[in-house]
Write a structure and sequence with these properties.
The chain is an alpha+beta fold. The chain has a single domain (28-152), classed as Immunoglobulin-like. Helices cover 16% and strands 39% of the residues. It is built from two helices and eight strands. It has helices at 2-21, 129-132, and strands at 28-38, 44-51, 64-69, 74-84, 86-95, 114-116, 134-136, 140-146. It is globular, with a radius of gyration of 23 Å.
Length: 153
């Protein structure tokens, strides 16, 4: 009888240890982004998602980025699936001429439409991270960003 109790206790301890020490599964969510105010049905939509303030607007630090062909005016939809829950920001621009860069004039002012998460605006440079950040803390988050030319910011 003592053997059965020892066996039962050992199995219970083993099962409890497995469940207690198992790595926690990372929770993820889908980010459903709609880019609005597309005025020209040409070029590409360039979208980058950044995690945390230290990575904000650093091209090589984007968690994920997408390039999508713009075929119509109005809105452009994209889904970023299975992002780990956390704090993010988004930068987007409509690369109208398809050269895969945000074109600027002689003074460095963007000549193509652009936008940021929370529709954060800043006419004289990029917005502060604190204004553009958002929380992905659910299984599905919908966000809308309006792209605008610099003169309309």
């Amino acid at each position: 009888m003592a053997f059965v109790k020892l066996l039962f206790f050992s199995l219970s301890l083993l099962i409890a240890t497995l469940f207690t020490n198992s790595p926690k599964a990372t929770q993820t969510g889908n980010l459903n982004l709609t880019v609005e105010n597309i005025l020209q049905p040409q070029g590409n939509m360039m979208i980058a998602v950044f995690e945390g303030p230290d990575n904000f607007l650093k091209d090589d630090k984007a968690v994920v980025s997408k390039i999508g062909l713009v075929e119509k005016t109005g809105a452009f939809n994209v889904i970023f699936p299975n992002l780990p829950l956390g704090e993010y920001s988004i930068a987007v621009y409509h690369d109208v001429n398809g050269n895969q860069k945000l074109d600027t004039n002689l003074f460095g002012v963007p000549t193509e439409p652009y936008g940021f998460s929370n529709n954060a605006r800043s006419k004289w440079g990029a917005p502060k991270y604190e204004v553009a950040k958002f929380q992905l803390n659910e299984s599905e988050k919908k966000m809308v960003i309006q792209v605008k030319k610099w003169s309309k910011q």
